[in-house]
Automatic annotation (TrEMBL):
Gene3D superfamilies: Metal-dependent hydrolases. The lineage of its organism: Bacteria, Bacillati, Actinomycetota, Actinomycetes, Micrococcales. It comes from Frigoribacterium faeni. It comes from the Bacteria. This is Amidohydrolase.
Amino acid sequence: MTQEARFVTVDHAWSGAWSRRSVVRLTDEIELLGPPHTAHDGIPHLPGTLLSPFTDSHVHLGLIDPLLLGPGGIARVDDLGWDPDTASLWPEHGRLDPRWPEVRVAGGLLCPPGGYPSRSAWAPDTASVVVANPAAARRAVERMHDLGAALVKITLNSDVGPVFDDTTLRAIVDAAAEHVMTTTAHVQGVGQARRALAAGVDRFAHTPFSELLDDELIERLAARTSWISTLDIHGHGRGGAVHDVAVANLARFRTAGGHVLYGTDLGNGDLPVGVNERELRDLQRAGLGLDELLHALVAGVPLGGVGEGGRGTAHATWIPTPPPDDPAEAPAWLATAVVTTPDTLLEKTT
Ligand SMILES: [Zn+2]
């Protein structure tokens, strides 16, 4: 349905950079236009901050209630592993139901025979897609692609079982590239980060936490991979040492110019559904300031409008207060975010 455009102004906006009072065009999308001029006198004003939609780049929708994500400030998710046939329904569900987030899925978790998570309690048996050799690797990636997956989840966890040999690992990465799919690996165990890099994996599903990586390896990882943070999964009674290793690795990865994505492994343990203030505090400990936190949260998705070719987004982030002067308050401020659509933003003006 075509919507006639409505306009509002907001006090602050962020779409890759900050702007002060801005005009927002609302159709079936939200589009940031720029500073108001006299023609905009009298249009409704919202005191608060409009931002690009926030993404959690590592969730398991099968373990949470997706309807809680929007009120919690998360507009988009990457699901990193579940029963492939069930997960294949989620992207369309996200398109049709405005209460759902936008969803990309990996489908199953590609693992070697007996490898993680085939014996783990959290995942249904059908979530583990066993890949025994390079030919099976190509078939498994094709199957996920045909089910509508945008991502390929690989497990490389030598702490709890066997891991892929280099040839099979490489075959998965090559097959994913042929289908323009992003490879995301669960990398755990000493030496596995180096192997993932050598194989050409795009993303790490977790900040490496098994060992303090050396500077030369960090430099190469920063040039070639993105890391999904998931620092808070180590924060609850699992001992501080692993957490400290992860924060130290991420701090050096960031300093080396590495691309950091906000992600929580939502569904894994007792984590808040929505923007996780503790995850953001941990990212601050690794050195990220407010703008870097925002870049990690939006995962490259702009709000549209200024400098973005004029295209808007179906969702945006709304925070009813101005950005804090004190950087230490940024995590708590960001955790008050809610997802807004054009309709729910208009409702706030009445
Ligand atoms: Zn996970």
